């Protein structure tokens, strides 16, 4: 993904095929392929935004989850060129929007005099066990 503009058409063709196949098939293994391909870009985003969150692991998790949301939402039919650049820049933009909303929420809470309220940026989900789906079996 780091090659220059000379490799751009080849990158776009490969990404278009991977994203189209991933969208049609729904196989989660494509997420790992995309994570491996975009790892350097995700690390670059992480290191540029390292001061946004004191909890480095939380920042990395938010970066990965934001990347996966961007990959799920990208429409390769509407974006014929520079797909890799679009994914990386959109991940950075969405991550900024996520943290910006958290910063604004904290400012509102502090301005009301409630002190600091800590809350994870992503909602907690109920853990699912095998027994959850064992309906009268």
Structure description:
- There is one protein chain.
- The chain has helices at residues 8-25, 29-48, 56-73, 83-111.
- With 137 residues, it is mainly α.
- Helix 2 crosses helix 4 (83-111) and helix 3 (56-73) crosses helix 4 (83-111).
- The radius of gyration is 19 Å and the shape is elongated.
Q: End-to-end distance, in Å? A: 48 Å
Low-pLDDT stretches: 125-137
Radius of gyration: 19 Å
% residues in beta strands: under 5%
How many strands?
Answer: 0
Number of helices: 4
Taken in chain order, the helices and strands follow as HHHH
Biggest sheet details: none
User: What sort of overall outline do the alpha carbons produce when their principal axes are compared?
Assistant: elongated
Mean pLDDT: 78
Portion of residues within helices = 55-70%
Given helix and strand content, the structural type is mainly alpha
């Amino acid at each position: 993904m780091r090659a220059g503009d000379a490799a751009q058409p080849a990158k776009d063709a490969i990404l278009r095929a991977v994203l189209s196949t991933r969208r049609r098939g729904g196989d989660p293994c494509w997420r790992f392929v995309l994570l491996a391909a975009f790892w350097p870009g995700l690390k670059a985003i992480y290191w540029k935004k390292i001061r946004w969150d004191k909890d480095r692991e939380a920042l990395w998790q938010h970066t990965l989850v934001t990347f996966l949301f961007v990959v799920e939402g990208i429409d390769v039919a509407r974006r014929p060129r520079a797909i890799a650049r679009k994914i990386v820049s959109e991940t950075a933009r969405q991550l900024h929007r996520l943290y910006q909303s958290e910063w604004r929420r904290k400012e509102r809470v502090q301005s009301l005099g409630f002190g600091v309220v800590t809350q994870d940026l992503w909602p907690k989900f109920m853990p699912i066990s095998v027994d959850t789906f064992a309906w009268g079996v």
